[in-house]
Amino acid sequence: MKISALFVLASVAVSSQAQQEDTADKLCHSPQLYEDHPVLCHMLDRLYEDGDALAEEIHQWAAEQRLLVGHDWDVESLRESSVSSKLPIVLAHGMGDSCFNSGFQKLVKYTSKTLGNVYSVCIPTGKDRKEDTANGYFLNMDASVDIFAKTIQADPQLKNGFHAIGLSQGNNIIRGYIARYNEPAVDTFISVNGVNGGTGALPNCFPTTTTSSRGSAEDASTSLGGICSLLMEQASRRAYTEFAQEHSFQANYWRDPRQAQREAYQKFSQLARWNNEGEPFNQTLKDNFAKTNKFVWVMATKDEMVWPKEGEQWGAADPDAPLHRILPRKETEWYKKDSFGLKTAEEAGKNHYASFDGDHLQFTMDDWTDWITTYFGEESETPMEAVQ
Length: 388
Description:
Elements: H1 7-10, H2 31-36, H3 38-64, E1 89-92, H4 102-114, E2 120-122, H5 129-138, H6 141-154, E3 162-167, H7 170-180, E4 186-192, H8 217-224, H9 226-239, H10 242-247, H11 249-252, H12 262-268, H13 270-274, H14 283-289, E5 294-300, E6 316-317, E7 326-327, H15 333-336, H16 342-347, E8 351-356, H17 365-376
Helix pairs in contact: 3-5, 6-7
């Protein structure tokens, strides 16, 4: 059974009695916080009391959900490639993974070796495996981007720009860097199953949707089911608060598509700010997006972790029937308004699209090789899929 880290936001099973007397140094320092965020506070207490054990539990959960990559890759037998990259490569890992995990280190080594031993590095948001893993849950997106940017700007190998490739929510960090910094600039960004358009439903509670016909909001609500509707309501109630946005990475990209939650999403969500979906409009985000020369948006056709999966390529739930129909990206508000530069990039031929037949992050070595050699390599061929 697939379970998202959004259980931290959605579950109502943990009592507020989890609060302890010695709260002075804890992030949950009041009875009200325990009442409003019982599970998140419980997890933050565990992080405070025994972060090593919690990080290991997260690692094991991620392994069970097949979110860890590279562990079974044979790097040593890889022969040198005739394709090379002029620019270094930066990688960012997904939820539950870490730059310090052996599997992800294999991925970095494989990338370097495939592209002529180019300088390749995974940028962590923590000083070790424990902190890097935990920060993927309990450090917000903006704070993660700040750490990422500081490391980038301190690395002399990256001072003249670089290519970047992210996995799952690691793409939020790269995309956030592009939006808020992009100096030195990302030349080409490959987003593999990125939560670019947010996620608006819990695994095992995905609505039945279509991209070709419209239906009423009433139809959508009944098709979602009572328990799933309850969980979505709880997720949004807990995600759209200052506390959750400060202490939960996943809360930052929770994008409830229902009209009733639109105001709260625009008010609290870090993703909404990056997308210029609310006020005030930030022109810098759009200007920085334009500094990158190429974007490659990779979707898993059977993704059961991110809803809607089309959000990996900037599709979105239809505001008029949010749990019934998915809008193609060119029909979305952020595209039509060009709120952060997606339409400008499309019209300039910067956007490219690829997909693989499988679930979240279940790509093959051949898939990875094709992406990095095609889009990072000097001898790049015609893209696998034409710009749409």
